[in-house]
């Protein structure tokens, strides 16, 4: 898609992409999605998953199911991009109305800004850990320099836009893919199957908790950006190809990395514990000194690959939420917030894992509710979007559609009542429906299953399917 276009600052924001600019094939979607998800953070998810108290085999099934299903949701929503030639959160107006869509756009913006901040913070911490092991100093100065470099790469690509991202992601895919394979070969001797296979099985509730965590950590963190790249494909592109290449490109690296991460974390309780504090840096403890610099490269580039897609999509979401500035300016605004958030996490945030889980699950509930509505809306449509009317409050898509908005709010309220996170003090108010629903309260067996995410997704999807007349009326108009 980018090979025939000159690299320059993209001026497209919420614009509908002209047919003359649309080119490429669905298989080219592999590059941005693989590059965004090849991060060695996938190895740390093995430790996060075993933290739910389940066995290797239970974690493996949860990983395969959670990763594939959640990225399949991205694949289906990506169909909207090639049908409508516009960003995900603009196409969402067809379901929520032109101004009514500002609420889900604001939620999407919070999620993507949060993710880009988390990834930048992890890249900064990983660099400091590598420098410390090499004896080059891993203190404040190293962290500041690392933050400046990572932020500069991320913000520059986000401001330049689509073509720069496609080129960068192709390089990130090649470099990180090779170096990750080398990492796996070097640490394979630290896998001890006897210890891994001896991990005790957990309960069904613990398995569901791991499944939901993996869904929110992978595909549900990307659904709100799923159409941002497919919008540059020709309208005649295969919908099956869009779904397949999006799902395959996004899920193949996380699946491989998760399996190996499970083997590593299950082999060493000390490593398992260390990952909670420094998810990337802890992985360096297994490496010979000569590979630490290549590891830093693969870690930083992999995390930058994810942060770049997030800052691009967060800028688009900010525009969709109502900010009237050029797209590069919106990306720059998000970059400033990303840096400020990274400073807090790196220098003041304390232990990482609890805050990270709280962030994922809390925002995962309203995003899952929106995803359910959007997924059903996309699957119900048989025609391309009437693109000019996505900007017209008096058009067929309406101004503020109270039904879908109320559905997201209700599903979120119910969902937050069925999730908990005791590691983050600011989230202890959640879980208020666990006792009334007979699920044992905040200390019961279902407390950490995070059923609220699944409930929000299912409610948004099923209720929208039952109200299909709205879509039929829009298309008839």
UniProtKB/TrEMBL annotation:
<keyword id="KW-0812">Transmembrane</keyword>
<feature type="transmembrane region" description="Helical">
    <location>
        <begin position="29"/>
        <end position="48"/>
    </location>
</feature>
<feature type="transmembrane region" description="Helical">
    <location>
        <begin position="109"/>
        <end position="131"/>
    </location>
</feature>
<feature type="transmembrane region" description="Helical">
    <location>
        <begin position="54"/>
        <end position="80"/>
    </location>
</feature>
<protein>
    <submittedName>
        <fullName>Allantoin permease</fullName>
    </submittedName>
</protein>
<feature type="transmembrane region" description="Helical">
    <location>
        <begin position="445"/>
        <end position="466"/>
    </location>
</feature>
<feature type="transmembrane region" description="Helical">
    <location>
        <begin position="169"/>
        <end position="188"/>
    </location>
</feature>
<feature type="transmembrane region" description="Helical">
    <location>
        <begin position="359"/>
        <end position="380"/>
    </location>
</feature>
<feature type="transmembrane region" description="Helical">
    <location>
        <begin position="208"/>
        <end position="230"/>
    </location>
</feature>
<feature type="transmembrane region" description="Helical">
    <location>
        <begin position="143"/>
        <end position="162"/>
    </location>
</feature>
<dbReference type="Pfam" id="PF02133">
    <property type="entry name" value="Transp_cyt_pur"/>
</dbReference>
<dbReference type="GO" id="GO:0022857">
    <property type="term" value="F:transmembrane transporter activity"/>
</dbReference>
<keyword id="KW-0472">Membrane</keyword>
<keyword id="KW-1133">Transmembrane helix</keyword>
<comment type="similarity">
    <text>Belongs to the purine-cytosine permease (2.A.39) family.</text>
</comment>
<feature type="transmembrane region" description="Helical">
    <location>
        <begin position="400"/>
        <end position="419"/>
    </location>
</feature>
<dbReference type="InterPro" id="IPR026030">
    <property type="entry name" value="Pur-cyt_permease_Fcy2/21/22"/>
</dbReference>
<feature type="transmembrane region" description="Helical">
    <location>
        <begin position="286"/>
        <end position="309"/>
    </location>
</feature>
<keyword id="KW-0813">Transport</keyword>
<feature type="transmembrane region" description="Helical">
    <location>
        <begin position="242"/>
        <end position="266"/>
    </location>
</feature>
<dbReference type="GO" id="GO:0005886">
    <property type="term" value="C:plasma membrane"/>
</dbReference>
<dbReference type="InterPro" id="IPR001248">
    <property type="entry name" value="Pur-cyt_permease"/>
</dbReference>
<feature type="transmembrane region" description="Helical">
    <location>
        <begin position="329"/>
        <end position="347"/>
    </location>
</feature>
